[in-house]
Specification:
By secondary structure, this protein is an alpha+beta fold. The chain has a single domain, classed as Nuclear Transport Factor 2, Chain: A, CATH 3.10.450.50. It is built from three helices and six strands. The protein has helices spanning 3-19, 23-27, 47-59, and strands at 30-37, 44-45, 62-75, 78-89, 92-105, 108-118. Strands 2-1-6-5-4-3 form a six-stranded mixed β-sheet, covered by helices on one side. The longest helix is centred in the N-terminal third of the chain and has 17 residues, at 3-19.
Length: 120
């Protein structure tokens, strides 16, 4: 599997962790210095903060998440991934887009910067 495929697999694994309501594993998708830049909120940095963010999203009813890469640019041990996301937040459809800056680590590809927003 090439690097593009590994990043796509990491996206699929992360969606599976969210859908399994596993905030700790979801937080493990980020580098130790990774940052989440969610809509309407300040940056979130650090493993415990990542875990709390995803736990809050799960408790708010985030389910049926699918992450689809539309374009991945590889730059050595870093990559930029632009794509779409879908799911549900409670009874509402959640449709949006993202840009993720990935870093290749000893443990595989991890998210360094994650920015996303919703269309609906």
């Amino acid at each position: 599997m090439g690097e593009h495929g590994k990043i796509q697999a990491a996206n699929e694994a992360m969606a599976g962790m969210i859908n399994a309501k596993d905030s700790a594993s979801t937080a493990g998708c980020y580098t130790s210095d990774g940052i989440i830049l969610p809509p309407g909120a300040p940056p979130i940095q650090g493993s415990e903060a990542h875990k709390a963010f995803w736990q809050n999203m799960i408790e708010a009813g985030l389910t049926d998440v699918e992450i689809t890469s539309n374009e991945i640019g590889l730059f050595g041990d870093q990559a930029i991934d632009r794509g779409t996301l879908t799911g549900k937040l409670g009874d509402q459809a959640a449709v949006g887009k993202y840009i993720v800056w990935w870093k290749k680590t000893a443990d595989g590809w991890k998210i360094y910067n994650d920015i996303f927003n919703f269309d609906t």
